[in-house]
Amino acid sequence: MALSTPLTVNQIAISINKTQSQISKHLKLLSEKGLVRCLTDSAPHHRTYSLSQFGESCIKNLQSHSENQESTNNLDWEIYSKLSSRGRSSILQSTSTDPHSGSKIRKQANIDYKMKISANYSKVILSFLEKEQIVERDPNDQSKISLTPLGLKYKKALTNFDG
Residue 26 forms beta bridges with which residues? Predict the structure, then answer.
């Protein structure tokens, strides 16, 4: 439940079938984190709360991520966590659906992400990505590598969650 309009502790408690003390406890924590603000500090028995600007920003951010959830529903989060390391992420982000050589992908990652990924480490990363079917080799030129549809999903997820 988002506080789109200011509500009292009692109004919130009734609307979600919880006790006032439960609601007060959680609102206090949310207030300490800057997500909500009490509009009536001087009236301790009739407190009214609303979302803070930071809270509103967080809600919008969550809504934006939930809109992208459909594209991330079928991702293997263990693989995602492995991809989110800086080296692997930069190689994945520098790979496209257009086939390129592994060395071109590595050079692009080094430029875009100010990295110094060695040729050997790049090969290890690309091998991992190929094994997980995130990238594939061009059937007409085995030296060229491109993203698979699954790779595009991981790339999009990394882009959405990392910034």
Answer: none
pTM for this entry = 0.56
**CB 95 within 8 Å of CB 81:** no
Residue 76 CB partners (closer than 8 Å, separation 6+): none
What is the CATH T-level fold of the domain 7-67, as seen in this structure? Arc Repressor Mutant, subunit A (1.10.10)
As to burial, measured by CB atoms within 10 angstroms (0-12 exposed, 13-18 middle, 19+ buried), residue 81 is exposed
C-alpha distances (whole Å) from 98 to each of 126, 138, 144 are: 15, 10, 9
Sign of the torsion formed by the C-alpha atoms of 60, 65, 67 and 68: positive
* pLDDT bracket for residue 44 (50, 70, 90): confident
* Torsion angle of the four alpha carbons 146, 74, 86, 93, in this order, in degrees rounded to the nearest 10: 30
**CATH number assigned to the domain with residue range 74-162, chosen from the 4 options 1.10.760.10, 1.20.140.10, 3.40.640.10, 1.10.10.10:** 1.10.10.10
Could you give the count of Cα atoms lying within 13 Å of 129 in the half-sphere of its Cβ? 35
Question: What's the start-to-end Cα distance of the chain, in Å?
Answer: 26
Cα 42 vs. chain centroid, distance in angstroms?
39
Q: At 135, which amino acid appears?
A: V
In the numeric block, which tokens belong to residue 16? Answer: 């979600």
